[in-house]
Amino acid sequence: MKKLLLVLSTFVLVFVLAACGNDKDAKKITVGAKNFTEQFILAKMTTIMLEENGFDVKEKSNLASLALRSALENKQVDLTWDYTGTGLVTYLKEDPISDGEEALKKLNELDEKNGITWSNITEADNTYALVMRADQAKELGITTLTDFAAYMNEHPGELLMASHAEFANRKDGIPGVEKEYGFKFADNSIVEMDSGLTYAALKDKQVDVSVAFATDARIKEFDFVILEDDKEFFPSYQAAVAMTMKTKEKYPEIEEILAPLQELLNSESLRELNYQVDIEEKSEDAIAREFLIEHGLIEK
Question: Disulfide check for 79: which of 110, 220, 243, 283 has CB 3.0–4.6 Å away?
Fold first, then answer.
């Protein structure tokens, strides 16, 4: 009996030690995402690809830009997709750089002190834009931001602008547009709301102009027009991976794992993915998996 108990005790000890060892050896990582559709999709695709390569992935989604950046700096998030323009202008208080590779180089130089590295830059440029309903823009003769500024100066307070709080206060948001194009929104003419509500507000004629992301499928679906940024104010916002240096050192294979996805992402492909979620009401997880399977990045 004693011999049997000894054997059982030894078996349990070996099992516990093995379990602890497996837990210690598990490739754990937290993937972050901001609070809009494109970010949810990018996070889902990243999670799926990392899980396919043996990672234990936790998602931390629905964060505002600055909250996500803080989480990355404080290592509450290990990896996220972010945008070159946001990194330079908003986080690092630098002037924008239109060339993607140059922007990536500058980001890595400046973010080294913050323990953050940038990689896997894509051709997807999710820059900001101001949009109007096509019929109203045509009626008012507005096709460019210069036209818009002239109209605002001639008709102060007439047009209402939908914006999320972040864009309303960013250097590369409303304050910068006003300064670059020489106009000023009248008091109470900026209606702040959640970023997901601005398109509906414009569609339903609650406002006359809205901030938009250039890759958003609702621009076409709702018959909006992008007002041409004829002074090229808005910086490039190419999607790229931002991760902690600690994560890169621990898992150098991540860049290679995500490289095939990087090659497939451009403004058109992201616009289509956004369309499937926002217009066709598919789940982010479903369309992420479909996309990866369709392009041979994962198996069914």
Answer: 243
